[in-house]
Amino acid sequence: MLLDLVLGYECNLKCDYCTLTDAMRRRNLTTFEARAAIDRGAAIGTRALQLGGGEPTIRRDLAPLIAHARARGFTEIKVQSNGLMLSYPDYLPSLIRAGLTRLAISIHAHEPPRYHRLTRVDGAFAHLERGLAHAVASGLPVEAELIAKTDTFAHLPAAARWLADRGVLSLRLWLVSLTDENAAHPESLPRMTDLLPAYRAVFDEARAAGRRAVSLHLPKCLLPGYEEHCIDPTEGGVLCVTPDAEFTLDQSRLGGQHKPDSCRHCIHDPACPGVRRDYADRHGVGELVPVRARE
Questions:
Q1: How many domains does the chain divide into?
Q2: By residue range, what is the domain housing residue 218?
Q3: What's 55's DSSP letter?
Q4: Residue 156 belongs to a domain
Q5: How far from 90 is each of 57, 97, 123, 204, 208, CA to CA, in Å?
Q6: What pLDDT, in 10s, does the model give residues 121-173?
Q7: Cα separation of 231 and 129, whole Å?
Q8: Does residue 256 form part of some domain?
Q9: Burial of 69 (0-12, 13-18, 19+ CB in 10 A)
Q10: Residue 275: inside a domain
Q11: Residue 88, Cβ neighbours under 10 Å: how many?
């Protein structure tokens, strides 16, 4: 079981696909509430923790919260970040001393002009580059997260190569969500079948170079021959604690659960979450074609 602790919705970027509304950005857990959530996770035997947001690195209590989690027995502690604060030389070492064990860094785009258009913060790309370099140099496992949306998915193979050149050996592909603030931009969500050539290119290069690349939201039936690259983000159990609610990821709006009745005959059905509700509402579920066992 993973404890996914969303410390708050405040962020130092304002990405054009972000689901956070201005009202949500004012909602954040207090240090006491965050410590209590860590305590509850430890009490049920959870040993893996992900600290996210918003942007967790802009909180002054992040290192103390990491230290508290280590003291409560968590052995895997990951921070999910946009990487900007990691550009300051002394910042990441302070998190490592507290007990941080791994990093996930959101790479919104790998070229400065597109990055600045997407994040809507001029000059931020230089901080991302320095932060990414510091992360790789630290020796911690670093995982890059790339967003697949209508105006980014064609650039994913080039972004993956850019990351590999900088020593990042693991990446995850996220499909943009049409929830909350981004519900007003349905055009940002591409059809999954349109993504396939770019995804295959990313996976082929990762295989050839011995790197890890996975998709979090595409069902296995869409990528025959690449099934091992399609993972279910809810696998193993994920307990989410946010400023608004506490729930398991498989029961959330981002946990899938939508697929046609014909999927009952698919060999992947028992482990396949289907597609998210926002995707089904936008594009339907007709792209899913059951894979039958060979006779």
A1: 1
A2: 2-251
A3: -
A4: yes
A5: 13, 11, 21, 37, 36
A6: 999 999 999 999 999 999 999 999 999 999 999 999 999 999 999 999 999 99
A7: 28
A8: no
A9: buried
A10: no
A11: 14
- Report the distance separating Cα 9 and Cα 73, nearest Å: 26
Residue 112, SS3? Answer: helix
Query: Taking each helix axis from N to C terminus, what angle separates 62-71 and 91-98, rounded to the nearest 10 degrees?
Result: 20
Q: Please give the pLDDT value at position 266.
A: 95
Give the tokens for residue 82. Answer: 């946009």
| CATH number of the domain bearing residue 30 | 3.20.20.70
- Rounded Cα–Cα distance for residues 231 and 233 (Å): 6
Angle at 285 between CA 196 and CA 189, to 5 degrees: 55
Query: Averaged over 218-225, what is the pLDDT?
Result: 96
Angstrom CA distances, 15 to 51, 55, 124, 156, stand at 19, 12, 12, 17
Summarised one tens digit per residue, pLDDT across range 231-287 is 998 888 999 999 999 999 887 766 667 889 999 999 999 989 899 999 999 999 999
Six token digits for residue 253 = 């709006």
Residue 289 lies in a domain: no
Banded pLDDT at 295 (limits 50, 70, 90): very low
The pLDDT of residue 254? 67
